[in-house]
Amino acid sequence: MADVILRLHIAGKAFGTRKVLGAIDLALGAREIVAIVGPSGCGKTTLLRIAGGLERDFNGSLEWPHGRTPRIGTVFQEPRLLPWRTVRENLRLAQETPDDALADNLLDTLGLLQFADAYPGTLSLGMARRAAIARAFAVSPELVLLDEPFVSLDADMAAHSRDLVLTAWRARPTAMLLVTHDRAEAESMADRILELGDEPARIVAEIRVQAPRG
Ligand SMILES: Nc1ncnc2c1ncn2[C@@H]1O[C@H](COP(=O)(O)OP(=O)(O)OP(=O)(O)O)[C@@H](O)[C@H]1O
Ligand SMILES: [Mg+2]
């Protein structure tokens, strides 16, 4: 792979005496979208957190070949916006260097510009999700972590939100790890799909998507 942004070797990960992850190796390209699928509770979120450096308690190694931790944008299952800050302020606060033009450009892309001064409590779940997506891209990320970002949206809104993530990604391609239960979603977004299975979890299948993203 030409430009690898993340090289992860997990020998094992346990919570207490319970082994959750077995041996897993992952190298992620700088502009590669990799989906992680697998049954509920198998360890997808745990793997995502380890890959993003958010969970350091595991056996193995996490390397950033670029020599430093990349800027990471995250979208979790819950939007996790700060309720006492407006949508625009939520984006600004995530940015290391304030970049209002980028923030407003993203809000525009995600159809939220007219709600930039609204508080998260006044948004629908779909809008809050989109605001969380905008915030993830507002940090000029080199790596984007998405953990089931479209669950509990209706089918149309989920499809629309997927398109918006890809629009943001096409404007500024990054490495991306997408956790999902949804095989069709993985196939429509990713270059590569890793299927987790077994206990402790390992990669039971790796599928390279032909003609990714249509
Ligand atoms: N902080 C924790 N302490 C103890 N056990 C944990 C912790 N986090 C996760 N686990 C356990 O590790 C296993 C894997 O959890 P994880 O959240 O990674 O699964 P998942 O594949 O993301 O599940 P889902 O699809 O339901 O989100 C589960 O059995 C869970 O109970
Ligand atoms: Mg999970």
What do these coordinates show?
This protein has 214 residues and is an alpha/beta fold. The protein has helices spanning 44-51, 87-94, 100-109, 125-138, 155-171, 183-189; strands at 4-15, 18-21, 24-29, 33-37, 59-63, 72-75, 143-147, 175-179, 192-197, 202-208. The strands form two sheets. A six-stranded mixed beta sheet has the order 6-7-8-4-9-10, with helices on both faces. Strands 1, 2, 3 and 5 form a four-stranded antiparallel beta sheet that branches. Helix 2 (87-94) packs parallel to helix 4 and helix 4 (125-138) runs parallel beside helix 5. The protein binds adenosine-5'-triphosphate and magnesium ion. The site of adenosine-5'-triphosphate (ATP) has 10 residues, from helix 1.
Draw up the topology in text.
Blueprint: E1 4-15, E2 18-21, E3 24-29, E4 33-37, H1 44-51, E5 59-63, E6 72-75, H2 87-94, H3 100-109, H4 125-138, E7 143-147, H5 155-171, E8 175-179, H6 183-189, E9 192-197, E10 202-208
Parallel strand pairs: 4-8, 4-9, 6-7, 7-8
Antiparallel strand pairs: 1-2, 1-3, 1-5, 9-10
Helix pairs in contact: 2-4, 3-4, 4-5
The structure holds adenosine-5'-triphosphate and magnesium ion.
Bin the strand percentage. 25-35%
Give me the number of helical elements: 6
Bound heterogens, unique: adenosine-5'-triphosphate, magnesium ion
List the strand order in the largest sheet.
6-7-8-4-9-10
Strand count, sense and closure of the main sheet?
Answer: 6 strands, mixed
Low-confidence stretches: none
Distance between the termini: 22 Å
Average pLDDT works out at 93
> What is the CA-based Rg, rounded?
17 Å
What is the ordering of alpha helices and beta strands?
Answer: EEEEHEEHHHEHEHEE
Question: Care to count the β-strands?
Answer: 10
Shape: globular
Structural class: alpha/beta
Q: Please estimate the helix content.
A: 25-40%
